[in-house]
Amino acid sequence: MQPLLSQACWDTLYMVGWSTLIAVVVGLPLGILLVLTDRGGLLHNAVLNKVIGQVVNIVRSMPFIILMVALMSFTRWIVGTTIGRDAAIVPLAVGAIPFFARLVETSVREVDGGLVEAVQSMGGNTWTVVRKVLVPESLPSLISATTTTVVAIIGYTAMAGTVGAGGLGDLAIRYGYQRFESQMMWIIVAILAIAIAVVQFAGDSGARVLHRRAGKGGEPFRFRKRAAFLPGGPVTADATATPGKTG
Amino acid sequence: MITTQGLTKVYRSRGREVTALDGVDLHVREGEVFGVIGQSGAGKSSLIRCVNLLERPTSGTVTVAGQDLTALAGRGARAGRELREARSRIGMVFQHFNLLSSRTVQDNVELPLEILGHSGQARSRKALELLDLVGLADKAKSYPAQLSGGQKQRVGIARALAGDPKVLLSDEATSALDPETTRSILELLRDLNRQLGLTVLLITHEMDVVKTVCDSAALMEGGQIVESGTVSELLATPGSELAAALFPVSGDASGEDRTVIDVTFHGESATQPVISQLSRTYNIDISILGAAMDTVGGKQVGRMRIELPGRYEDNVVPIGFLREQGLQVEIVENVAQEPVLLKEGVTK
């Protein structure tokens, strides 16, 4: 049981790590682009805005398990196979990118337009505005968004077992559900609960430190429950792991 | 230093058109503090944003320091390199300060220098120098959230000066501040204007601001400049609303058979105590009903409402005497009528 669990933990960590990285690297610019190309934005472009918005909506509306199947040929093209951990990262990342992009969009939209104007008045271009204003000023919020995304991805990975990627969720389903070994399932639930608590705590602390410095802190930080709006609805891992701390 | 010609700005949204600026001709001389005053919605904000082209004018030209900015702007919505370089030589301060909350005070002041591509050492030297100039040297490592409103605006001013601008635009810089702080910020602007030879264009809805720091002023109404000129030019203009608002006088006649007149001193004349001369020469008792006077450079500037005994017909000669002294005299027919301009900004 021990080696099974440690392998599963490692698999989950591997998938979550890589897909979070990809989601942030692609989702951040995408989210910023959504703001910039919107009406009144610095790069106002109605067509581009609509296209990105629609793609984001379509991907987000797809249940993850279907997304995984739908992306099979794309996955094969990228990693050469549709089975295993690496193959699971592709749909995980693709599913998480629009999710994260929307969160980024919300965060960046909250940045005061006056700051953008100030930087423009100093002779800054759009890139300067993004680098010096939009990202640093929304950083606390972006960290929270990343936390939410990591938690969501941990939820997605439960389904990655379908393509033989392993991981904790897969183990829980195979042992807990298919073999009636409920002990294994509860251990995994506990591990997931702790993992998510740790991620949430780390993210909240980071966001709070930045918030306080910016003079917006003080109020208790609420736990976000955005994971409930994932494609495919509430996900097993998340649904079982959060009740203890939604309070 | 700043000239706009036929500046027009029309906002279009969902088929409706709103004209914010309607053929504005503005001329700000080098080294002066020029105030544009008007009520909300008069087009002041659009005007100041058009000067550094944060807003693209629909038509008309803007020239700053001999450079035609509207020509630099090109046709696209985005600012090209030349326009951005021109902007970096125009400082701007804002009503709500617009400091980056994620950066320290010093880093905020360094921001324009980062954009200009200065090295780290040069940036921090310049930033500390500027913070010293605005009296905040000890706050360099603080975050904006830890500062008071007045201090934040000082940081905003230091930041606006980082690019060694010749021109400073002030967008309601004191409107979010209390009167005491407003005064100290205006003093700072005045000092900078004198020390650095900075040309300042400020917009405000507070008459006091114009009165405290401005050499020249313009009144905006409905997107147009209604009056404009130096303070003494405005005073010399009969019926100037701005002069009346800058130097408000009021007071009713104490009875029948009195003549009430408004006397305007606009600097060129009035080196002698004319009122007492008038009293002595014609042996009449004069009561002063109200006065709003300032002494600028040893000359009296302002307006005074005085009451002479007898009807107008009896006072033709004394009034002629005042006119001879180079003063402007208006007979107040209906005393009850008060200047209605800019009620919110006027303080007695």
UniProtKB/TrEMBL annotation, chain B:
<dbReference type="InterPro" id="IPR018449">
    <property type="entry name" value="NIL_domain"/>
</dbReference>
<keyword id="KW-1003">Cell membrane</keyword>
<comment type="similarity">
    <text>Belongs to the ABC transporter superfamily.</text>
</comment>
<comment type="subunit">
    <text>Homodimer. Forms a membrane-associated complex with FtsX.</text>
</comment>
<dbReference type="Pfam" id="PF00005">
    <property type="entry name" value="ABC_tran"/>
</dbReference>
<keyword id="KW-0029">Amino-acid transport</keyword>
<keyword id="KW-0547">Nucleotide-binding</keyword>
<dbReference type="GO" id="GO:0005524">
    <property type="term" value="F:ATP binding"/>
</dbReference>
<keyword id="KW-0067">ATP-binding</keyword>
<dbReference type="GO" id="GO:0005886">
    <property type="term" value="C:plasma membrane"/>
</dbReference>
<dbReference type="InterPro" id="IPR041701">
    <property type="entry name" value="MetN_ABC"/>
</dbReference>
<dbReference type="InterPro" id="IPR003439">
    <property type="entry name" value="ABC_transporter-like_ATP-bd"/>
</dbReference>
<keyword id="KW-0813">Transport</keyword>
<dbReference type="Pfam" id="PF09383">
    <property type="entry name" value="NIL"/>
</dbReference>
<dbReference type="InterPro" id="IPR027417">
    <property type="entry name" value="P-loop_NTPase"/>
</dbReference>
<keyword id="KW-1278">Translocase</keyword>
<dbReference type="InterPro" id="IPR045865">
    <property type="entry name" value="ACT-like_dom_sf"/>
</dbReference>
<dbReference type="GO" id="GO:0006865">
    <property type="term" value="P:amino acid transport"/>
</dbReference>
<feature type="domain" description="ABC transporter">
    <location>
        <begin position="2"/>
        <end position="247"/>
    </location>
</feature>
<keyword id="KW-0472">Membrane</keyword>
<dbReference type="InterPro" id="IPR050086">
    <property type="entry name" value="MetN_ABC_transporter-like"/>
</dbReference>
<protein>
    <submittedName>
        <fullName>ATP-binding cassette domain-containing protein</fullName>
    </submittedName>
</protein>
<dbReference type="GO" id="GO:0016887">
    <property type="term" value="F:ATP hydrolysis activity"/>
</dbReference>
<comment type="function">
    <text>Part of the ABC transporter FtsEX involved in cellular division. Has ATPase activity.</text>
</comment>
<dbReference type="InterPro" id="IPR017871">
    <property type="entry name" value="ABC_transporter-like_CS"/>
</dbReference>
<dbReference type="InterPro" id="IPR003593">
    <property type="entry name" value="AAA+_ATPase"/>
</dbReference>
